[in-house]
UniProtKB/TrEMBL annotation:
Active site residues of this protein: 374 (nucleophile)
Biased composition range(s): Basic residues: 1-14
Example of a GO MF term: RNA methyltransferase activity
Residue sites binding S-adenosyl-L-methionine per the record: 258-264, 279, 321
Family, similarity comment: Belongs to the class I-like SAM-binding methyltransferase superfamily. RsmB/NOP family.
Name assigned to this protein: MFS transporter
InterPro entries for this protein: MeTrfase_RsmB-F_NOP2_cat, MeTrfase_RsmB-F_NOP2_dom, NusB-like_sf, NusB_RsmB_TIM44, RCMT, RsmB/NOL1/NOP2-like_CS, SAM-dependent_MTases_sf
């Protein structure tokens, strides 16, 4: 699978951490993500041991700088391009990483200017091949401090999005919607939780979501009360909707075809279904098992490590949460914007069609099939319904049950969320698509 191979490739290149200065560690993460396409979450995780040698405050600073740099990468590159007459040599990865993470502090964080500039210069002097760029970095960053206000005032809204993606958003959703997407992608997302039942205590200070979940300001998950008790898990508000779109699953046999890390499997099991959870990637299947054990839902779930293309059986309901471009999750995974290409969309849409065809064969007559993706590309959502209509005559589009998904049901009868929308009055949620079919023959 394209997505999985990319994941494996990236896992083979953990960032090499050097030094214990928070900005040196931030540079390492930025380099790994922006140059080697290591997923941000993985790079942050792998750097944790190095960050562990730091004071907690410094470790938090390293991660915060790295996160802001990756979130605002396009904006930062645009600002740097205004101040540099020549591009850096292609191979000057570390120099680029130092400049980007220093610019993040100067432009978007309340860090002392002198600390950001001086550390950049010192870091470059300490790197092989870096000393020759120390003067340039000093001049560019000092100019950035002087011209910060005008740079920020003239920063184009589309600067933070790769051009191919921006064009597709404008074509699919219109210029205003594309602008709203770009604006929300610049913000740190909230932390959304899903619960194993209505009686699990909700964390203090959280806001109830219409999904039954709750929202908190971004924070360290393990610090929230009840983490060890396993009554809840982290799941974006929009990601909680597809399992609800399946409908009442109590006592039913449900196939979750692409299941890890298991958010939707846990929702289905907690709602009383007996779930067969398929996952092709053994490492991710292991995470799914750990999540089920932590939430004490293992008894209701059989985990099968296999290719969903080989799925067989006749289930009351099938959930196909298909591998996709994940362009609906850019608030949470800003690196995805730069690690995907236009070609990926076509490849993934093809794979999704094959999985949808297989999924249709695993639904019992009269049963329900929900197709979902966390993509804002119509090719991975709305157009898959057109495909089903023309190629899968056993399926008929079925109404989405009244509930948390209702405000997002379109005139065509499918569910579409965009990250710039609100849920229950709360701004921001992942971009998701879900269509509900019934097997009629
Ligand atoms: C969008 S994620 C699923 C998220 C999951 N449903 C949840 O709610 O936590 C897609 C998953 O499908 C897996 N996958 C990709 N291709 C697959 C295939 N052919 N068969 C089974 N799983 C596959 C990926 O490894 C990934 O874990």
């Amino acid at each position: 699978m394209a997505q999985q191979n990319a994941h494996r490739r990236n896992r083979a290149r953990p960032p090499k951490t050097t030094g214990t200065d928070p900005r040196a560690i931030a540079t390492t993460i930025v380099d790994a993500v922006c140059e080697a396409h290591t997923p941000l979450a993985y790079a942050l995780e792998e750097v944790a041991p190095a960050a562990g040698r730091l004071e907690p405050r410094d470790a938090a600073l390293a991660r915060a700088i790295a996160r802001v740099t990756v979130r605002r990468r396009g904006d930062i590159d645009w600002c740097l391009s205004q101040l540099m007459t020549k591009k850096l040599p292609r191979k000057a990865n570390e120099v680029r990483a130092v400049l980007r993470m220093s610019a993040a502090q100067l432009l978007f964080m309340r860090q002392a200017d002198h600390a950001a500039v001086n550390t950049a210069v010192a870091l470059l002097k300490s790197k092989p091949g870096g000393a020759g760029f120390a003067g340039l970095a000093n001049a560019v960053l000092r100019r950035m401090v002087r011209e910060r206000d005008s740079l920020l005032a003239t920063l184009p809204l589309e600067a933070n999005t790769p051009a191919w993606l921006w064009s597709r958003w404008v074509a699919s959703w219109g210029a205003d919607a594309a602008a709203a997407l770009a604006a929300i992608h610049r913000e740190e997302p909230t932390l959304d939780l899903a619960f194993a039942g209505p009686d699990v205590p909700r964390p203090e200070g959280s806001v109830a979501l219409p999904t039954g979940g709750a929202r908190l300001p971004a924070s360290d998950v393990t610090a929230i009360d009840g983490y060890g008790e396993g009554g809840w898990w982290v799941q974006d508000a929009a990601a909680q909707l597809p399992a609800l779109v399946v409908g009442d699953v109590a006592g039913k046999r449900v196939l979750d075809m692409c299941a890890a890390p298991g958010g939707k499997t846990m929702q289905l099991a907690a709602a009383g279904a007996t779930v067969t959870a398929m996952e092709i990637d053994p490492d991710r299947a292991e995470r799914l098992r750990e999540n089920l054990a932590r939430t004490r839902l293992s008894d209701r779930v059989e985990v099968v490590v296999a290719d969903a293309m080989d799925a067989e059986g006749s289930f009351d309901a099938v959930l196909l949460d298909a591998p996709c471009s994940a362009t609906g999750t850019l608030r949470r995974q800003p690196d995805v914007a730069f690690s995907k290409s236009e070609k990926d969309i076509g490849l993934l849409a093809h794979l999704q069609k094959n999985l949808l065809r297989r999924a249709a064969e695993c639904v019992a007559p009269g049963g329900i099939l929900v197709y979902a993706t966390c993509s804002i590309e119509p090719d991975e959502g709305e157009r898959q319904v057109e495909f089903a209509r023309s190629a899968l005559p056993s399926l008929a589009l079925a109404p989405i049950p009244e509930g948390a998904a209702s405000p997002f049901v379109t005139a065509e009868g499918v569910m579409r969320t965009l990250p710039s929308m609100s849920i229950g009055g709360e701004r921001g949620l992942d971009g998701f698509f879900a269509a509900r079919f019934q097997r009629t023959a």
